[in-house]
Amino acid sequence: MNLPLKAALLAALLGAFQGCGPKAPELPAMSRLESYAFSPASPLADRIKAVPRGVLDYFSAEDKRPDYASYSPSPSEKKLLLDYLRLLPPVYEKTFKARCAGVYFISGFMGNGVTNWVIGPDEKVYFYIILNPDAFKKSLSQTLTERERSCFIPRKGWDVRVEAGDKYKGLLYALAHEGTHGLDYAAGITPYTDDTMPAYYRPRRTVAGSFFLRRWEAYSKPRPGLDFPGRERITFYGLGGGPRLDIAEAERLYKGLLAGGFISLYGARSWAEELAELATFSALDTLGQPYVITLASPGKPYTLKPMTAAGDLTYQAMEYVERI
How confident is the model at residue 18 (pLDDT cuts 50, 70, 90)? Predict the structure, then answer.
């Protein structure tokens, strides 16, 4: 067989083989990087800007909140965000520069923030972050206390408080948590960050897949022996039909949390949330911030220190983050 004929046959066979493989799924415009005027050469400060209309409309509809509005942070607020980003391990800023399409703020947002994936023309995974501008005003302790309280149906004589220090604003928690999700999307630390992203784009090899598969039977189902009663009813900020837990159940819930070695109720919801919470509280601990939860009740107050229960898991998780 002559060489041109061999080459033509090889090309035909290769084309047929490739045609049988998985094809990139069709994506809506807001899931494509081209919708975000992204340039990896642009300064991060320039990516802290008004939320795109399509993104705002999506979350307004998703949360049933027509009052959502784009918030433009002041120069000093932008600086604070960048200062806080540089308090985190260098891998955060490095990944933000390479893969973060934008950091946006929505006034009245339900919760501290959310991170979403977008796909580039190179088929790499990028991300954007939505944050609540209240994070500029409230301390870490206020931010985490409000989150914890939103998990429970109130009852007279009962309350829950989180002591996480007042040195930093809640923005630090929100940025670290959502930033970790961004790193997870971009680099594949857990088996996958969420199931809304088509499996086609999920990383073939993950940095810490086996670590999380030892703790999780499935994305939101812990291994036997780590699960605890009430975990499946954990919700926050009124989302998911919540709150669905009476605060009188809180002590039993927290004891289950500690027995499973989880760092927070929020982190007990899925392996992606566990990663985000472990890495975040590892960073806060490195910065010298406390993390103590106190449940007040008509009886004796119940106090817990989840960092102690999670032990080395926090630092293992951060080691995986820094390895990407």
Answer: very low
